[in-house]
Amino acid sequence: MSLQPIRFRITILLCSLIVLHTSLALADDLAPLSDEFSNASTFSKWQDLGVVEGWTTPSYEIADINTSEPGHFHLVPGPNTWFAHLRGLLMFKEVTGDFVVTAKFRVLSRHNAADPTEVPNRSFSLTGIFIHGPRNITQAAPDPYRTDAVWPPGDFGSDYVENTENYIFLSYGSAGNPGTRQFEIKATRNSSSQLYFDSTGIDQNETEVWLQLVRVGDTVVCLRKHGESEPWIVENRYPNAVHHFPVFGDTLQVGITAYTDWETAAPFNAGGLQTSYHFNYAPPTDGMPDLISQVDYFRFRRPDPALTELVLQGMSTSFNPATNTTAATPVELSESLNAAPYLGDNANIEYAPYTDWATIEFGGNPDSPDAQPTADPDGDGLSNLLEFALGSDPESIIDTMVPVGSLSGGDYTYQFTPSITDGADLIIQSVSDLSGTWQPVASRPLEGGDWIIHDGDAAIQVNETTDEVTLTLPATDPQSFFRLQVSQ
Asked: What is the pLDDT along the chain (488 residues), one digit of tens a residue?
């Protein structure tokens, strides 16, 4: 815990020089998108494709974080799937540029409430990582829904456009052989889907799977692992000799899919565009969905600069184009000598904002004594944790961005600019007499988000351009003391 008191009197103003410190810009800018699913409030940071595209009817029955299953994103999909014009479930975050994303999934079933660890027994009941090309669709279907709607739906106010689905995914569960644990991998270009599935390399008793996708330029590599101590398997690389590459722009929707019950979806696909459209807007409620997806974490990182597109294209893969399935002996990541140091477990890095910051500030050695949160290596009276929160240089006394207090128009004001969006609890406290008890005025939680007001007379404003925080509190006492408390 670190404290920085600021004292106000009617005739006294405490100011300090503020010098911008930019080292945080060097940190991994994608890492904050990661989610360990330990706080229910992070659910609001995930976008639902069904809402974004205006389909309205959810593709899930239950979706929550750290609620149904502690420490997990818990998804219970209704009948849905991803194939051709059929749209499934996607909870995502937007990513621009190259990325590595790693996630750990647990696959459960619904047909036997006494033992959900049984394998799903409906075809294509799987969950995994999904990367999707955004579409310029915000009102996909008429509202209210009309069962007599005739194609083209644009006659009823829809902006849906056919042949625009572009995506790649790798998932785990039960695919074309219900009751058998398998993976499925699929690439779709302009709504033309190519896929295969297999159980090679899978322990049939293992409910969990580790998946990883990496994109560099116009190359995507998909990896899987079927046990904590098992090797990473390089499943496929796109483009390849027989699978076309989706029409991807620089920005993609990267996230989690969960789909089930192909038996219910298949007739809608067979009916062509018209029935597919109705399935997407109003998924049937009389199916037999048989999947529960529980995601342990979902981690984003930028690829190491050494992981070039040429390196990815040189990787050996398990996919056998001659048979359109995986090789009998899976190809392990260790066989790709130029890529292995930057993928698999080496890229599966938990987002730790303070550690990332300390790694940069202290020469790649975040475990050194000088790098500890309570240390003060420059002797300026501010701990590293405060320097982290305020964006100042922990090894330079003159580069200290302390809060500023003032008295204006009958209000006390307290201003500072946090350099972090999450990674530490920030609490502004006040007291009218230093012999009294400090009281919380406003706070922002570890996971970030909006400020919470604890004193009904206080107000918080955040400058959208500079992120400067301004607290105002009526000056009802002849003096007040304020301090910023930073903790983890």
From this structure: 555 554 444 322 222 222 333 333 345 889 989 999 998 989 999 999 999 998 878 899 999 999 999 999 999 999 999 999 999 999 999 999 999 999 999 999 999 999 999 999 999 999 999 999 999 988 887 666 666 655 555 544 567 777 899 999 999 999 999 999 999 999 999 999 999 999 999 999 999 999 999 999 999 999 999 999 999 999 999 999 999 899 999 999 999 999 999 999 999 999 888 788 888 888 888 899 999 999 999 999 999 999 999 999 999 999 999 999 999 999 999 999 999 999 999 999 998 888 888 888 898 888 899 999 999 999 888 899 988 988 888 988 865 578 888 887 888 999 988 888 888 889 999 998 888 999 999 999 887 788 999 998 899 999 988 889 999 999 888 888 888 999 88
User: Phi/psi at 378 (nearest 5 deg)?
Assistant: -95, 0
Burial of 222 per CB tally in 10 Å (0-12, 13-18, 19+):
buried
Decide: helix, strand or coil at residue 338.
coil
Instruction: Pinpoint the alpha helices (H) of 282-411.
Output: 309-313, 353-361, 384-390
Our CA angle for 398, 424, 302, nearest 5°, is 90
What secondary structure does DSSP assign to 376-428, as a single string?
A: -TT-SS--HHHHHHHT--TT-TT-----EEEEETTEEEEEE--S-SSSSEEEE
- Please name the helix (run of DSSP H) or strand (run of DSSP E) that holds residue 49, with its range, or none: helix 49-52
- Read off the pTM: 0.82
Any residues with CB less than 8 A from the CB of 456 and at least 6 apart, and which? none
Unique residue bearing structure tokens 């050494």: 306
Tell me if 221 sits within 8 A of 119, measured CB to CB. Answer: no
